[in-house]
Amino acid sequence: MQKKLRLAVLASGSGTNLQSIIDQSQSGALDAEIVLVISNNPGSGALERAEQAGIKTLCINHRDFSAREDFDQAVVAALKSAEVELIALAGFMRIISSVFLQAFPQRIINIHPALLPAFPGLNVQKKALDYGARFSGCTVHFVDDGVDTGPIIIQAVVPIHADDTEAALAARILEQEHEIYPQAIQWIAEGRVEVEGRYVRIRAAMHSEQILINPTS
Ligand code: GRF
Question: What domains appear along the chain, each with residue ranges and CATH number?
Answer without folding.
Answer: 1-105 (3.40.50.170), 111-202 (3.40.50.170)
